[in-house]
Amino acid sequence: MERNYAAFISYRHKQKDTEAASFLHRSIERYKIPSGFRTGGVHFGYVFRDEEELAASSDLSEKIQEALDHSKYLIVICSKDTPESIWVGREIRYFLKHHDYSHLIAVLIDGEPHESFPRELMELTDEEGNLYKRIEPRAADFRNGYKKAELTRIYASMLECNYDDLVLRQQKEQRKKALAITSIVMLVLLSFISMLLYNNRQLEMKNEELLEQKIQIQKRQSQLLTENAKRSMENADNLEAIRYALDALAPVEEDERLYYPEAEAVLLSALDVYSTDETDHLFLETKKLNQEGQIDDWTLTEDGKYLLVMNRAAAVTAYDPVTQDVIWEVEHDDQYLSGVSGKIEADD
Fold first, then answer.
1. 326 forms bridges with which residues in the sheet?
2. Which of 134, 80, 81, 94 is nearest to 8 (CA)?
3. Can you tell me the distance from the alpha carbon of 235 to that of 210, in angstroms, rounded to the nearest whole number?
């Protein structure tokens, strides 16, 4: 089956010319034609480039003639060495026997057009070699590198469209592509954020679950300690009841323990302290213990021998926690506070 070609690249087999031919070959075959300019597929199709140097004495091979016959365009790489190539001239003449000269595209890679264009590229002759028309082929300028604008000029010639129209359409296609890429990136980013939020929520739920478990454990501990305090009260061991109640209300390591009101009730009961008046202040008012003024702070000494009470009347009183008898009392100022611990030791 014969293959059709979008273009045939004719060039002199020298390094610079060959590099340009190779670059064009790849670029044309890979070019994606913008929508609106397509008459067939998305790409131009195959490009023919003969990589073998033909012998000077031979004619165009059957392979070359067949490729020229089935190529829509002839692209001629033009350098200062090109006019010396008999094969480039023969390929141009053979191509023009079956194609219009408007399908010739010149690519200038060095020199000026008058010194780099083969004569066959600028003059039409009859079979006897007589000049009957001068022509000016479509041309792209690669003398300053393989610029995208010059590639677009070649594409416009092959698409038989206006260069500016093709540039505008390419820019539109590029914007669409950029928008599509941005949309994909945003979709991936949103998916990542959603996954991150989901994971964070799962972590929060896990933390909430752990916190709830911790609270329940603390609550159970406070409940058990409070039950122990109640049993101690039933056994008339108020000192032990106070210790259990204080443990039930004490902080857990660095955290505050969950407030357990039953523990406070048992503690107040063991101390014979109750909540009264309209301002809900605590007073120690029993038959054996008469503490004047609002209680500001109280504590049980580590050995359990003394209940120290500080009130708003600026006094610190030490009670026996069991009998609630007053052991000693001092005014609340700095010179006495510093000696409280010493007084306790002295009394011992």
1. 319
2. 94
3. 37
Q: What is the pLDDT of residue 287?
A: 34
**Rg of the chain taking only CA atoms, in angstroms:** 51
- Whats the size of the chain, residue-wise? 348
Strands 104-108, 131-134: pairing kind: unpaired
CB 20 within 8 A of CB 142: yes
Span 252-273, pLDDT tens digits:
665 667 777 888 888 887 776 5
- Percent of the chain residues past pLDDT 70, beyond the cut: 80
Rounded Cα distance, 33 and 44, in Å: 7
- Contact yes or no for 131/125 (Cβ under 8 A): yes
- Predicted pLDDT at 143: 92
Locate tokens 């949309």: which residue?
183
pLDDT digits (tens, 9 = 90+) for 91-134: 998 999 889 989 999 999 999 998 999 988 888 777 666 777 77
- pLDDT at residue number 284: 41
Please report which residue ranges of the chain form alpha helices under DSSP H: 15-30, 62-69, 86-98, 113-116, 119-122, 148-159, 163-234, 238-249, 261-271, 334-337, 340-347
d(CA 286, CA 271): 10
- Rounded Cα distance, 324 and 16, in Å: 112
The pTM score is 0.54
Alpha carbon distance 11, 162 (integer Å) = 26
Category of 253 on φ-ψ map: left (φ > 0), alpha (ψ -120 to 50) or beta: left
Q: Locate 199 and state its tokens.
A: 């994971």
pLDDT at 314: 55
Structure tokens at 200: 């964070």
Q: Name the nearest CA neighbour of 46 among 65, 69, 70, 64.
A: 70
Hey, which residues does 330 pair with through a beta bridge? 316
**pLDDT given at position 136:** 81
| Alpha-carbon dihedral 261, 266, 271, 275, rounded to 10 degrees | 40
